[in-house]
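Issue 218. Parser rejects a valid record. Input:
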Amino acid sequence: MSNNYKDSKFKDLLDKLQQESWQLELLISGFAIFGLITAIPHIRTAMVFAQNDNEPFYFIPTLIAFTACSILIFNLLIHVILRGLWIGALGLRYVSGDIDFEKLNYQNKFTSYLKKKIISFDKYVATLETYCSVLFAISFLLIFYVISIALVLLCILG
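Output the parser choked on:
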């Protein structure tokens, strides 16, 4: 495929990848959570050794790594929970369908009130999708914030 980013085929490919990125998000989140949970005890041990030996040049990077891992684990766990809710909502949407207010045969006053108060299930699913994607992106953005702030502080102190 050509590298022309203005081509309609390329834009269609990107749209398709964007719609199906949730599978990759869950895969990356799962492996990252597993890896980070296994790494946390080792990082904590290294941090304690560096603190006991009074080595600030070894303690500071391990503290930064521990903070970054903790933030990432927390955000990715929330992401996995929300993605699970989103998948469940998709399954429920497939089975349930929309509410047929005319079939309920309520008075016009109640029907109009219910139509205003009950949001579309599609809107709920779309909102969950947006929250999940944003949380996934923000998780890694926060890690780079932590690393960059730490590097700037180390450069200022050094």
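Fixed in the parser; the record now loads. DSSP finds six helices and no strands in the chain.
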